[in-house]
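We recall that each integer encodes one residue's backbone shape. We quote one record:
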Amino acid sequence: KMSVPDYMQCAEDHQTLLVVVQPIGIVPEDSFFRIYKRISAVSQVNVRDSQRVLYIRYRHHYPPENNEWGDFQTHRKVVGLITITDCSSAKDWPQTFEKFHLQKEMYGSTLYDSRLFVFGLQGEIAEQPRTDVAFYPSYDECETVEKRIEDFIESLFIVLESKRLDRATDKSGDKIPLLCVPFEKKDFVGLDTDSRHYKKRCQGRMRKHVGDLCLQAGMLQDSLVHYHMAVELLRAVNDFLWLGAALEGLCSASVIYHYPGGTGGKVGSRRAQGGSLSAEAGNRHRPGAQEVLIDPGALTSNGINADTSAEIGRAKNCLSPEDIIDKYKEAISYYGKYKNAGVIELEACVKAVRVLAIQKRSMEASEFLQNAVYINLRQLSEEEKIQRYSILSELYERIGFHRKSAFFKRIAAMQCAAPSIPEPGWRACYKLLLETLPGYSLSLDPKDFSKGTHRGWAAVQMRLLHELVYASRRMGNPALCVRHLSFLLQTMLDFLSDQEKKDVTQSLESYTAKCPGTMEFITLPDGLKLPPVPFTKLPIVRSVKLLNLPTSLRPHKIKSLLGQNVSTKSPFIYSPIIAHSRGEERSKKI
């Protein structure tokens, strides 16, 4: 059973050859990835003396059990292995070379060719010319790496082409081998291999397999012919799993034709760097282009159907953009019949969503995604769950479902701090929570909340702010806790119950005892700045009542000093009271 899904899969991956790049022995991680980056940059190669282009998909880790599904879909088959090793002395060389052979055995049955890149070894051994080993003095002195990879890919193409021609022109009488997926093998023990039903099943599966090989070999129109014929053969015998694969092959070839820029978005848009190649390939595969697809004489009536001229005329034009989605739906419904094909079904859903995103058909894309959410795989590790929810979030974002995207990103954030993880990743959790804010219409700038009506669901926003406070505390950053709690109190005051207000203010009191709040910006590691939070809504004035001042501050009424001899009491030489009293005396005398 294939257990590890590749959530980054796109329809155009079906035309790629899979090459695994791995270290042997102890190789410094930074050195390995420096070379890996250079190798993986050689992702498309023009085939010499031909208009065809080969596309390569590199992986530095690939589960061997996934490799066992290589006959079902050939892009899942590891056909190339490149190993990188440190070897500084001649005495270590035999052991290093032995390890290379052991590594090859892991993927042995499917490998077309392999290479060993040795860094650090100089002298007699390094000077011997070899095709499968390249010696370099150091990681800084290896200018020919890219050229070596191009030669390696050409050698893969030679093997691919011979296999394609060999399978397409099978003349071995009635005995076409039955290709199987791993879980089917036990079901076919004791079957009548001479029955017409069995032979048709063998023919249909082999025809589909040849379609895969044509697609990888850069022969798009040929692959369409084979897939159409495989669909008819497999439909006739109700071979649903392989019928699903033939339909998906048809979808992949059609997507490659319609969308030469790829469907992977910023991840894996392989063709961006080779526009001229895409234009050339698109031109070569234009509707009505005259190509010799299959030599009818080379196909025997027993096996892969002799006269293909009718099929060529009918399949010349591939599926329309609408038909691609219908066929994806049909393929996924067939995969759903087999619990062991969960990964295949999940990946097909993801591929269909990427196509629908380009077609701007968001509602249909959401249906495929909803199906993907409920596909039950084996017990996933916490890391795999984080990856799964993050990709679902990214896909929902791509089709414009921002709140749904935020929902899955928040689940991924919670997964980072799951109790089962020995060292919970609170920083990763906090970072993912911050990324969910736009989806919930939440900004961390208090100014955005002083502009009239409240946007978004306050209850969800408060929950999110509480989670940011908790993650900040677990990261050991009390200043962040104070800032988020202050923000919660200031912006969500109208939505907090009396008990919640009490709880928030008590929490704020305990945090500010350790780390007083400031009016400075807080800059996070990724450059995000959190503005200060002035309490403009606190305190809340509900009613006004005048209270008596303390005795010491109360005003006292001054007694009238008229008629008194004030000159001795007053510090003033002249005062209005004295002037007034003197004026009165003067008037009496008159």
Observations:
- The longest strand covers residues 16-24.
